[in-house]
Amino acid sequence: MKKAFITGITGQDGSYLAELLLAKGYAVHGLVRRASAYNRSRIDHLRTDENVGSGRLVLHYGELNDVTSFHRLLHKIEPAEIYHLAGQSHVGLSFELPEVTCLENGMATLHLLESMRELDTSTRLYLAQSSEIFGAPEGEDPQDETTPVAPRNPYGCAKVFSMQLGKVYRESHGLFVCNGIAFNHESPRRGENFVTRKISMGAARIAAGDEAVIELGNLDGRRDWGYAPEYVEAMWRMLQQDRADDFVLATGRTHTVREFAAAAFAAVGVPVDFQGQGVEEVARRRDNGAIVLRVSPRYFRPVDAVSLRGNPAKAKAELGWKAQTQGADLAALMVEAERG
Ligand code: GDD
């Protein structure tokens, strides 16, 4: 039975990837952080699934930057495939927590690569990289694997460090390391402080009759939003190739935060109109004029990537992968899930 090791198994992508690998017959080992509050809700259904059976899903306590124990764990598991997904992934928060962001997204990759040098050389590694490496792409639209990096926040800087190290260890030590440069990918399992989940949760509450108001930051932020379960399929495909390489994972289409919110409200039968500008902007219900969304300076970042759009042509040609769900369909899927 093939063994996979997932860091970040309790996160959105980790949980979907664990499902995928278990369905393919893998034994899945996951790294979990000890916390006083229980944090495994995204994988609980797998732990009680009798088809998974005992021994096919194994969780290990660990910390990415507890180097010796992490090293020991990797050698004990001896996985055929490692998916490194863990790390502080909130871009806005990375301005407040730059050190932990860089330790978890940058230095942890280095520790992992160093440990891998001593593992069986057939071990394959997927590194979760991000479109935030492009930050300000200076007219390069869409961005692909050759677009120069220009990160605009500590998170993007850490991901550049991680990605470049992955390439260096591939070239200089012959390790099988793939960088997946993933653009935004969302789902009902998205963390509650990412914009699509904030919107879908808020729209569902408002449709249910709550007098809630969604507070957001930059409504002009334009992102290439895809559907997370489709992206973990591409991660797996990368590690099944004959040769390790880097791939952009994206839909190739963008929407503004404002458009995503309008689509979410439309999906629950609460069409809205946006009025005003900048921090004065609000969205009002078309039926009774009530404010359902307002802009708050609290959620603005010191600098925000204006528009990120990926070119997934290489992933399509070489992995046979194509994102299917995006835009209004994604917004509808997410609000429907909130409504249960
Ligand atoms: N989080 C958040 N909260 N973002 C807001 C809000 C808000 O209240 N209001 C507006 N936004 C805008 C942000 O300024 C940004 O332009 C856009 O919504 C998307 O923000 P996020 O959902 O936080 O995602 P992100 O694009 O910064 O980063 C995500 O995608 C990256 C891949 O491109 C994260 O998942 C990263 O970890 C990932 O690498």
Task: Write a structural description.
The protein is an alpha/beta fold. The strands form four sheets. It has a seven-stranded parallel β-sheet with strand order 3-2-1-4-5-6-11, with helices on both faces. Helix content is 37%, strand content 18%. The protein contains eleven helices and 15 strands. α3 packs across α5, α5 packs parallel to α6 and α7 runs parallel beside α9. α1 links the parallel β1 and β2. The structure holds guanosine-5'-diphosphate-alpha-D-mannose. Guanosine-5'-diphosphate-alpha-D-mannose binds next to α4 and α7. GO terms for molecular function: GDP-mannose 4,6-dehydratase activity. Catalyzes the conversion of GDP-D-mannose to GDP-4-dehydro-6-deoxy-D-mannose.
Sum up the structure in keywords.
single chain; 340 residues; alpha/beta; 4-stranded mixed β-sheet; 11 helices; binds guanosine-5'-diphosphate-alpha-D-mannose; NAD(P)-bd_dom_sf; lyase
Helix-strand blueprint:
Elements: E1 3-7, H1 12-23, E2 27-32, H2 44-47, E3 57-61, H3 67-77, E4 81-84, H4 91-94, H5 98-117, E5 124-130, H6 154-173, E6 176-182, E7 185-186, H7 195-207, E8 214-216, E9 222-223, E10 226-227, H8 228-239, E11 246-249, E12 255-256, H9 257-267, E13 272-275, E14 282-285, E15 291-295, H10 313-319, H11 327-339
Parallel strand pairs: 1-2, 1-4, 2-3, 4-5, 5-6, 6-11, 7-10, 8-15
Antiparallel strand pairs: 9-12, 13-14, 14-15
Bound molecules: guanosine-5'-diphosphate-alpha-D-mannose.
